[in-house]
Design brief:
Layout lengths: L11 H8 L4 E2 L13 E6 L8 E7 L4 E6 L5 E5 L8 E6 L1 H8 L15 E4 L13 E4 L18 E6 L14 E6 H8 L13 E2 L5 E6 L6 E6 L3 E8 L8 E5 L2 E7 L8 E6 L8 E4 L1 H8 L9 E8 L2 E7 L13 E5 L5 E5 L1 H8 L6 E13 L3 E12 L4 E7 L13 H7 L15 H4 L14 H9 L3 E2 L26 H9 L24 H7 L3 E2 L13 H9 L5 E5 L4 E3 L13 E5 L3 E4 L8 E4 L3 E4 L5 E8 L4 E4 L4 E9 L4 E3 L4 E4 L5 H12 L9 E3 L1 H8 L5 E6 L5 E6 L12 H10 L23 H9 L27 H14 L6
Parallel strand pairs: 28-30, 29-31, 30-32, 31-33, 32-34, 33-35, 34-36, 35-37, 36-38, 37-39
Antiparallel strand pairs: 1-6, 2-25, 3-4, 4-5, 5-6, 7-8, 8-9, 9-10, 11-12, 12-13, 13-14, 15-16, 16-17, 17-18, 19-20, 20-21, 21-22, 23-24, 24-25, 26-27, 38-41, 40-41
């Protein structure tokens, strides 16, 4: 039985009075057309609505929906929504009643058509009204003064409550509707006489269930508003230009986090504000546009992209993504429902292709996002509770339901196990290969598509691995480990091991390969760029599926043979500003490179042993060596203005060192050994340049910022040096008297000083022989420096090396110090007079 949208005044009272007693019954649920196992129409409305579905709300305890229409009837109650119940629809308010309510009972007033764009039941008690016993309705219509076309703000009802009753016929609707906010109320708050606003969308309940938040997108009323559900009293809590968004609320400790579409600086993303009942925070980014573009794999911007509707379930944020991109563009597949969880991970619930397959002809309109909990029964896990996202599917005039199974739960048993990955691995194809061609045989495969682009490829593996909670290799403890987008677990058995390398090696040099065959960087071929992702994630293990999986043993001979056949590439590592480790810029360790060039004014930290033999070029900024073998096999060249630094207390080696004019090598409180190519004369020249006037603040050469600070504080320190006898030289943070640079002044240093025989010899001397002030000779000043530090037999004096370790030293008894001084004095007296 169906009623026309308009009835003649002569027929309306009799027909509507009779209709009030009629309940429509119907199947309501269309059979899904495609094999989409988490999407179905929950309520189709064409069988009981005389016009388009406007909004709906759901009462879980009674399995009842209240539906509004852009026409007649105005409100319908539907019981038995969920199978196996039988749906039954009862009109509770007809358009004629609503029209009289709009008109304040005066037929001479003009009104716009019904625009009941939002209806939600109260989730918590309000006064004497129990939960789900009262609905708030948002209306976008206007009421005019009698016999004119001018809008009457006081009569224009923007928000009213509905007591869920059946409106009397005839009647003016005041028996079921109560006005809570008029256009005049909003005008008073906004300070405008404008009658143009935009309110015909779904709102959101506050955390305490006593108020609602709604968005207005018009110029005069634009912003985020709050309204007492019963008390009224509208407030504009954020005056801003906001996209046409249906907001969501996440309450935490009495403070509401309100999610809206992204604004300036985050257009197309998701923003939020917090509201504690009186104060609203500034607008902040919840999900950056860049994160969404990366997730969807879209460069630049998408046409008219926005969050159309939002909902929260616990800590998860669900959103309807909208774009008006044409069907020829990849992003046209994305309109659908997506999830953003508390760990910052994005995943698809359902996309446009799946919607069309399961529901038929769909368009861009999907909104009014709401959630409910439904039981799901599977053969392996019995029955479990799952979240279902309800939304309005405008193209078919229906409320659809998309079940949000756990991400990666491909066999739908409410668990993520190896069985899910066994289903997933065969589905992974080369990059960009469309799975869904419109046939039922491929639509079912789209449950493996994690980002909604109708493909199951490298990107989907990345997303899947993000839900497997890979933990870093234990040997990385103490290092900064970035959140890797690629784990290189080719067989997805939960551990990145040598078998995954062998997979890559087996297809090396071939094209049109998926991730599961070694394409770890997603360029559809297996080549050199796939090596580093595997190196970066070797030893990573999944806490979800990797427990107990043994690692394949590392075969050094096979590894060496593979590296031996590669052509080393030139590598550029850029740190534009700040400080980043090599892992943070993509290299856990650098095993092969023709050259490595550090660019950018920031600091790059080599924090592990790198085995490449190519040259290291510091073109700009700072390269810090924080591991003994950080560049042990590489010759380091530093351009003017560049800086090579040693991390505090680290003793490290480079294969060679070339400093251009204006370049610095800073040993800080560590030590730098140069394996070859640097003569003692050249080393001393660089030290003298760094020493400058004795303050160790030179602008080129070898220096120490730690020494410069110590000297400025009155502490006798310098950069010492030593010829190691094997062609290598060492420069290190040192105190006068520490001849062997072991960061302790002891009897060995006294012996070295005496055995050197350079005191008053007027002969060139080294630091090892006692020239502690770089004047080229050993004299009484060096003796004074030796004795004035007060470090003899005091143990390690390098604060950066204590107590964590450093160079071991065995303190001698304090009583030995006078003997040491006596030995130095004897050596001095033995010098010929006048020497």
């Amino acid at each position: 039985m169906r009623f026309p949208t308009r009835l003649s005044s002569a027929r309306r009272p009799a027909v509507l009075a009779a209709a009030c007693a009629v309940a429509w019954s119907g199947a309501g649920l269309d059979h899904a057309r495609g094999q989409v196992d988490n999407l179905a129409p929950v309520l189709t409305t064409n069988w009981f609505l005389g016009s388009s579905l406007a909004a709906y709300t759901y009462a879980p305890a009674t399995d009842t929906m209240y539906v509004t229409a852009y026409g007649n009837p105005a409100v319908v109650r539907v019981t038995g929504v969920t199978p196996p119940a039988s749906q039954s629809a009862t009109p509770t308010v007809y358009e004629s009643t609503l029209q009289l309510y709009y008109r304040n009972g005066d037929p001479n007033r003009g009104v716009t058509s019904p625009v009941q764009g939002g209806i939600l039941l109260n989730p918590q008690p309000i006064g004497a009204a129990p939960s789900y016993s009262l609905a708030v309705i948002a209306d976008g219509g206007n009421t005019r003064y009698p016999a004119t076309s001018t809008v009457d703000p006081s009569a224009t009802k923007k928000f009213y409550t509905y007591n869920l009753g059946v409106a009397a016929i005839p009647g003016d609707g005041t028996d079921v509707f109560t006005t809570r906010a008029t256009l005049a109320d909003l005008q008073a708050v906004a300070g405008t006489a404008s009658t143009s606003n935009s309110l015909a969308r779904q709102f959101a309940w506050s955390g305490d269930g006593q108020s609602i938040y709604f968005v207005d997108t018009s110029g005069n009323y634009g912003g985020l508003w709050k309204l007492g559900a019963v008390a009224g009293a509208p407030q504009r809590i954020l005056a801003a230009d906001i996209e046409n968004t249906e907001p969501a609320v996440r309450p935490t400790g009495g403070v509401d986090q309100i999610f809206i579409s992204g604004g300036p600086g985050n257009v197309g993303g998701i923003d939020f504000v917090t509201h504690d009942g009186s104060t609203t925070s500034s607008r902040q980014v919840a999900v950056a546009t860049s994160k969404l573009l990366e997730f969807f794999e879209v460069s630049g911007t998408m046409p008219s992209q926005r969050m159309q509707s939002l909902a929260t379930v616990g800590d998860d944020l669900y959103f309807v993504f909208y774009t008006n991109a044409s069907g020829t563009k990849p992003e046209s597949r994305y309109p659908g429902v997506y999830r953003y969880d508390a760990q910052g991970r994005l995943s698809k619930v359902v996309n446009r292709t799946q919607r069309a397959s399961a529901l038929g002809s769909v368009n861009l309109v999907l909104d009014r996002l709401q959630s409910r909990t439904i039981p799901v029964t599977t053969g392996s896990s019995g029955t479990f509770a799952a979240t279902q996202l309800l939304y309005r599917e405008g193209g078919i005039n229906a409320v659809a339901g998309a079940t949000a199974f756990k991400p990666v739960d491909f066999n739908r048993d409410d668990q993520v196990t190896a069985a899910d990955l066994a289903l997933f691995v065969p589905q992974v194809t080369i990059r960009g290969q469309i799975k869904a061609t419109g046939t039922s045989g491929t639509i079912a495969d789209l449950k493996f598509d994690m980002n909604g682009n109708d493909t199951v490829d490298w990107k989907d593996v990345q997303i899947v691995e993000g839900f497997l909670d890979y933990a870093p290799d234990p040997t990385l403890a103490g290092r900064i480990v970035p959140a890797l987008p690629i784990q290189a677990d080719a067989d997805l058995n939960g551990v990145v091991d040598f078998n995954d390398f062998l997979t890559m090696r087996g297809t090396y040099g071939s094209t049109s390969q998926p991730f599961t065959q070694g394409d770890y960087n997603g360029d559809n071929e297996v080549s050199f760029p796939d090596l580093q992702p595997w190196i970066n994630s070797y030893g990573f293990r999944s806490a979800v599926v990797g427990t107990g999986v043994p690692m394949a043993p590392f075969d050094q001979a096979v590894w060496n043979q593979f590296l031996g056949g590669l052509t080393p590439p030139a590598v550029t590592l850029d740190v534009a500003s700040g400080r980043q480790t090599q892992f943070q810029v993509g290299y856990r360790t650098i095993v092969i490179a023709a050259s490595v060039t550090k660019t950018g004014t920031g600091t790059l930290v080599y924090d592990t042993a790198n085995t490449y033999t190519g040259t290291t070029n510091v073109a700009a900024g700072t390269l810090e060596l924080a591991d003994p073998a950080a560049a042990a096999a590489s010759r380091v060249t530093v351009a003017g203005g560049g800086r090579l630094a040693v991390a505090p207390a680290v003793v490290t080696t480079v294969a060679g060192l070339d400093l251009a004019p204006g370049a610095l090598a800073d040993v800080t409180s560590g030590a730098l050994a140069v394996a070859s190519g640097l003569s003692p004369t050249d080393l001393v020249a660089q030290l003298l340049a760094g020493r400058a006037d004795g303050s160790w603040t030179g602008t080129s050469g070898i220096t120490s910022t730690t020494v410069a600070a110590d000297v400025a504080a009155g502490l006798p320190r310098a950069v010492g040096w030593m010829d190691n006898g094997d062609g290598s030289l060492t420069a290190a943070y040192a105190a006068p008297g520490d001849t062997n640079l072991d960061w302790a002044v002891d009897v060995l240093d006294v012996a070295n000083f005496v055995a050197g025989g350079r005191y008053n010899a007027s002969e060139p001397a080294t630091w090892f022989e006692g020239d502690f002030n770089y004047d080229g000779v050993v004299d009484i000043q060096d003796v004074a420096d030796f004795g004035s530090t007060g470090l003899y037999s005091a143990g390690i004096y390098n604060p950066a090396a204590t107590p964590a370790g450093g160079i071991a030293a065995v303190p001698e008894p304090v009583a030995c110090w006078p003997i040491a001084l006596a030995a130095v004095a004897v050596a001095c007296r033995r010098r010929p007079a006048g020497s």
